[in-house]
Amino acid sequence: xxxxxxxxxxxxxxxxxxxxxxxxxxxxxxxxxxxxxxxxxxxxxxxxxxxxxxxxxxxxxxxxxxxxxxxxxxxxxxxxxxxxxxxxxxxxxxxxxxxxxxxxxxxxxxxxxxxxxxxxxxxxxxxxxxxxxxxxxxxxxxxxxxxxxxxxxxxxxxxxxxxxxxxxxxxxxxxxxxxxxxxxxxxxxxxxxxxxxxxxxxxxxxxxxxxxxxxxxxxxxxxxxxxxxxxx
Length: 232
Prior knowledge:
- This protein is mainly alpha-helical.
- 75% of the residues lie in helices and 0% in strands.
- It is built from 13 helices and no strands.
């Protein structure tokens, strides 16, 4: 693992760090408010590591939800990762012993970074994938721990804290837009998401949108690949 890859990986994850520390702190505070110590925050962030689902998990723990209810809720909240996984098969094919962890740690933000269309010369891809995944989880664990400690020491209003995730996505999208001349995937994703939002509503648009985006990318795959070759 060379120094250039380590430095580039760290710099690439700085926007995620900003978002994950804030969101992790919010999660830790909420968990503490329900009567769970910082050890629970650390354990959940290490073993579950699913930001939105961990927020839901706080309520599931507090209300004593059944394992079946928890399983169904997890499937609904994280169904989008089925599509993420399919698109990462080729990228993760030669990652060796790191592959199980890379699969486990594939969050929305990590997915955005490892899908970067172009990496500078000298960057080892499989090391970059591992470092980005590991650094992102470390940020989340640290934020959860700090939030739990703050929750025990200071009152902290949590209204609106989830907007940090939206802001984080905006920063990542803008960064990737500037780094590539191939904007078809981004435009397609936004267009399909808006259409599905209008048709299915806020509560039900996510899975249809992911299906529509996957189908659309399949049909325009040739155009995207040709654009990448022309760029090279």
